[in-house]
């Protein structure tokens, strides 16, 4: 890491603790050494479902998806589900599917369960190399919005209960016609649930993170997309089961950064910030973690 004086430092355990959760708040990370596992091929790509009547189809889909989560998803399977606007169509309910294991029989069984969640419009999931999957992902990913007046933001909930489903249906129904405006859900599970003393990422209990992206590729639509994201986040925050805080890189305006680091993590991060960046030089690297007093 390069610090505020331009020195290249090897991260010690204390700094690694901060980076694992607060990222580049302390300097510029220029090199990483990580353990990798050789995997020649993955079984992966994107599923797109027929939306149909949005209110009923999406609500039913989310209920069946919750049943699948309750049943348990194998550690080898990664799923991201969301809704966005796509060219030549109104809206798309999509699932990014990645099976990172060589057991294709189990992979196909997992894919069949995803097929059972709703009517499939398109299925591009196949066995492919990792570079081929990355290329397919880049083509399927919505465009990056450079104009952001109201997003991104995040909300964490324990499950897709009736209240959560109602909010997701509402903000799918009034989703702006902008390909860079969307919502997508992620979930923490498996080994990530284990509490870790060497990481400042605090949310280790099972939860679903709803990512709200209110950006626009053109300035003319930025206000509409921003208003949608702000309203979405406000309604979601009123849900009874919402977790306090959020993911620091997706925390909405008006949410204190300290709420993203409960259980003593905030105090330790602030001490580390004062030590590593006493002049607050990197105050814009991670917004909200710029306090040094």
Secondary-structure map with pairings?
Layout: H1 13-22, E1 41-49, H2 54-71, E2 77-84, E3 92-99, H3 104-115, E4 120-123, E5 126-129, H4 130-140, E6 147-148, E7 153-157, H5 162-173, E8 181-188, E9 207-216, H6 222-237, H7 265-276
Antiparallel strand pairs: 1-3, 1-4, 1-5, 2-3, 2-8, 6-9, 7-9, 8-9
Description:
With 293 residues, the protein is α+β, with helices and mostly antiparallel strands. It folds into two domains: 1-35 and 263-292, no CATH class; 41-238, Vanillyl-alcohol Oxidase, Chain A, domain 3 (3-Layer(aba) Sandwich), CATH 3.40.462.20. The chain has helices at residues 13-22, 54-71, 104-115, 130-140, 162-173, 222-237, 265-276; strands at 41-49, 77-84, 92-99, 120-123, 126-129, 147-148, 153-157, 181-188, 207-216. Strands 1, 2, 3, 4, 5, 6, 7, 8 and 9 form a nine-stranded antiparallel β-sheet that branches. Strand 2 (77-84) and strand 3 form a beta hairpin.
Fraction of residues in H or I helices: 25-40%
In the CATH scheme, what's the topology name of the largest domain? Vanillyl-alcohol Oxidase, Chain A, domain 3
| Mean pLDDT level | 89
Tell me the overall shape: globular
Order of helices and strands: HEHEEHEEHEEHEEHH
Structural class: alpha+beta
Domain Berberine/berberine-like: 267-285
Protein name: Berberine/berberine-like domain-containing protein
Pfam family, one: BBE
Organism: Exophiala xenobiotica
């Amino acid at each position: 890491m390069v610090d505020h004086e331009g020195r290249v430092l090897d991260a010690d355990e204390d700094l690694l603790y901060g980076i694992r959760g607060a990222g580049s708040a302390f300097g510029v990370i220029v090199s990483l050494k990580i353990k990798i596992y050789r995997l020649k091929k993955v079984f992966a790509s994107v599923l797109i479902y027929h939306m149909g009547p949005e209110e009923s189809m999406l609500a039913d889909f989310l209920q069946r998806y919750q049943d699948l989560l309750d049943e348990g998803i194998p550690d080898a399977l990664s799923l991201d589900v969301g809704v966005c606007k796509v060219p030549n169509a109104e809206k798309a309910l999509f699932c990014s599917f990645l099976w990172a294991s060589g057991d294709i029989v189990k992979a196909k069984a997992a894919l069949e369960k995803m097929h059972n969640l709703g009517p499939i419009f398109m299925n591009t999931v196949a066995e492919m190399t990792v570079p081929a999957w990355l290329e397919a992902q880049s083509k399927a990913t919505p465009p990056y919005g450079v104009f952001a007046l109201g997003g991104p933001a995040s909300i964490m909930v324990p499950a897709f209960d009736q209240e959560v489903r109602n909010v997701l249906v509402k903000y799918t129904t009034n989703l702006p016609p902008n390909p860079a405006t969307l919502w997508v859900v992620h979930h923490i599970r498996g080994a990530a649930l284990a509490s870790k003393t060497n990481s400042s990422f605090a949310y280790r209990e099972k939860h679903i993170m709803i990512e709200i992206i209110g950006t626009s590729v053109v300035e003319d639509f930025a206000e509409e997309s921003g208003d949608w994201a702000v309203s979405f986040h406000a309604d979601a925050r009123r849900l009874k089961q919402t977790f306090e805080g959020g993911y620091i890189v997706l925390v909405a305006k008006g949410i204190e950064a300290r709420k993203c680091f409960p259980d003593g993590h905030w105090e330790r991060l602030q001490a580390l910030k004062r030590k590593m960046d006493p002049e607050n030089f990197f105050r814009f690297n991670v917004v909200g973690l710029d306090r040094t007093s």
